[in-house]
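Chapter review: from sequence to fold.
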Amino acid sequence: MRTQFILLGFAFCAVLVLVGCVKDGFEGPSLNELFGEFEVIDSLSLSTADPDFSIGETVAFSATFNKPVNWQLEIQGLSSGGNKEFSGFSETLDNGAVVWTGTSSSLPFFELEDCAVSLTIANEDVALYDTLTVTGLVNFEGMRVADFDSGLPEGALVWRQDGANMTFQIADDSPLLGTGYFKMGGKVGWDWSLGYIDIPVDFSDVTVAASEFYLNLGVLSGTGGTSASDQFLNVSISESDAPFDDNQANNGADVFGAGNEVYRHQIRPVDWMGWEFVTVPYADFEVKHEGGDNIRTPGDITAIRIACQACPFNASLACPENADNDVQTDVDFLIFTEFTDLFGQE
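The token string follows.
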């Protein structure tokens, strides 16, 4: 009898333990989320259909579903081909979760144009559509060094070899953004260097680390259907506090000479057709000339050189094929950004 009472006691305690473990509600996805039919509660809507990004306007997108889903929102420029994409997993798009500031996810940039907007739901065969019109272009956040829309940057110096078909000048026939760009190219058979542009800057207000400071530059090549062999850009950055140019007889700014603190990055090879956008953190620049403290410090940058180079066709016939090809490494929209590259901006 005593044993029966003990067993009953254990059974009663076990029941209490099980009851105590029961929680209100449930964990994990509901049966409706797993197996329920998808439904759009509130269709796609836009906060404005004619944003002027030049004055800081934005477009907020909203929609509501009956369960969390994988969705993708895409904005497509109907004239430029510009593209911006957002994606996520949620039951709603609201409360400013999806806001467009006018930037693109890659080249090309958006223009003043009509755009198609689509919101697609993965695995549901559902797509929602709308349109908008860009009435003002975005002012990208960053330190814009050169856009060439009003000519050369103030104080810039240009040097080039006396080669054939040299094009170190402003042009307006095919800019990446705005109305102008800088052509850099030609044909030189006796030297790797064709020429360069030196630009003075003042980044003294910049406090981020070199790994958080990005050079962004558009580069155009191959518009004639081909490109010269081993053509590339040498981008040099000087942290010298010497005068930018106190001896104009030396074919460029003095701050890039030996003895100055200079760092370099090669964009190599430039072998594409059309515009490409290059982004690189300052931390990836290598030491070209030792000087100063040899610590890459964005706030100490005083000048930038963009140099056009290519394999010469008469130097021991290193690249004889270049006798028939003009070098083309045109540039546009040089801008430095903090924390992320240009396409990382929302």
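Two observations follow directly from the output. Confidence is low (pLDDT under 50) at residues 1-8, 10-23. Residues 88 and 234 are 39 Å apart (CA to CA).
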